[in-house]
């Protein structure tokens, strides 16, 4: 993203997409390790069960001690405006869980979902995140799953989730300076037509 003439400089936005276990997080972290300045890692996972507790603990331990880690499951853009550092590199891992966390806010215990309310929450979150990117001098790397390449989910919640995440990915991709698609650990740069 480039600033308008006379505007404050803004950082670069990189979107890294891929399927589950495609290597997208590892590649994002490799890019962050190569970065010369301060790295702020934003984790969106919520440890709601024992397996996730173990995953979160393993991820925390694997991150470099010099990185600042912020665990923000909801309201990432708002949190960035509320005092998190907006310089250096911000690595958000991942948009996939952020959208899931938002959707769970409008989901009943029976997995009924208010698609309109979910869409509004996701739109607000993405706009807030993009505003933080536009107004910041930090470079951003956002990791997200591409969920549109598999089977259509057989239940309404899954279909709503797939649609909302797909639209969120499209919005970020349309504003990104570069989009990288990961397949089997191999990064491929995507360029719009």
In brief, what are we looking at here?
With about 190 residues, the protein is of the alpha/beta class. Helices cover about 40% and strands about 20% of the residues.
How is the secondary structure organized here?
Layout: E1 13-18, H1 24-34, E2 39-43, H2 50-62, E3 68-71, H3 76-81, E4 89-93, H4 95-104, H5 115-135, E5 139-145, H6 156-175, E6 178-183, E7 186-190
Parallel strand pairs: 1-5, 1-6, 2-3, 2-4, 4-5
Antiparallel strand pairs: 6-7
Helix pairs in contact: 4-5, 4-6, 5-6
Number of helices: 6
Q: What's the rounded overall pLDDT mean?
A: 88
Measured by DSSP, the beta-strand proportion falls in 15-25%
Outline, from the CA principal axes? Answer: globular
β-strand number? 7
Largest sheet: 7 strands, mixed
Runs in which pLDDT lies below 50 for 5 or more consecutive residues are: 1-7
Distance between the termini: 17 Å
* Elements, N to C (H/E): EHEHEHEHHEHEE
**Which sequence of strands runs across the widest sheet?**
3-2-4-5-1-6-7
Helix content: 40-55%
Helix/strand structural class: alpha/beta
Cα radius of gyration in angstroms: 16 Å
CATH topology: Rossmann fold
CATH superfamily: P-loop containing nucleotide triphosphate hydrolases
Provide the domain count: 1
Task: Determine the oligomeric state from the structure.
Answer: single chain
CATH class: Alpha Beta
Q: Which architecture would the CATH scheme give at its second level?
A: 3-Layer(aba) Sandwich
